Amino acid sequence: MRDQDAIEALSALAHPTRLRVFKMLVAAGASGVPAGEVARQLGVPVTTMSTHLGILSRAALIGPKRESRTVCYALNIEGTRSLFAFLMADCCGGRPDLCQPAFEAAELACCPPAPNQVATHEPV
Predict the structure, then answer these.
(1) Residue 46, C-beta contacts closer than 8 angstroms, at least 6 positions apart
(2) What is the rounded CA–CA span in Å between residue 55 and residue 104?
(3) pLDDT tens per residue, range 64-116
(4) Contacts 24+ apart (CB under 8 A), 58-64
(5) Which residue of 49, 69, 101, 114 is surrounded by the most CB atoms within 10 Å?
(6) 120: buried, middle or exposed (CB in 10 Å: 19+, 13-18, 0-12)?
(7) pLDDT per position as a tens digit, 43-67
(8) Longest Cα pair distance anywhere in the chain, in angstroms?
(9) Contacts by 84-92, CB closer than 8 A, 24 or more apart
(10) Beta strands 33-34; 70-75: pairing state
(11) What confidence tier does 23 reach under pLDDT thresholds 50, 70, 90?
(12) How far apart are CA 47 and CA 56, in angstroms?
């Protein structure tokens, strides 16, 4: 990822509505959410939401997929991974032990242990 791509992605997320959309689509997974439903759930006019979805799409954080007459939006996992990798590329000057708590926190946020499992990571 180039610096300019990272700036575009971070700028796209630096807006309250777009951050909420991104988080909603992260939670929705691969199936995505119809554009109209995103607008309805967030209480944003459809035309305004279209602009926000376009900005997030151009930043390669989400992507549209057509299902019949409906356009659904889903997380662009590769674009999101690229941004995270860019941000962590020079993490801690080559000392992975210093970065490990950040990776563990991300893993726990993404995939918390089942209620009957014991967490294997210390809370950060």
Answers:
(1) 35, 36, 39
(2) 30
(3) 998 888 899 999 999 998 998 888 777 777 677 777 777 676 666 666 666 66
(4) 58/8, 58/12, 59/5, 59/8, 59/9, 59/11, 59/12, 59/13, 60/5, 60/9, 61/9, 61/12, 61/13, 61/22, 62/21, 62/22, 62/25, 64/35
(5) 49
(6) exposed
(7) 999 999 999 999 999 999 999 998 8
(8) 50
(9) 85/1, 86/1, 86/5, 86/6, 87/6
(10) antiparallel
(11) very high
(12) 15
The residue whose two tokens read 């007459």 is 69
Residue 59 identity: A
Tokens of 86: 């860019």
Closest CA to 104 of 117, 123, 90: 123
Looking at the predicted structure, is the pLDDT value of residue 29 above 90?
Answer: no
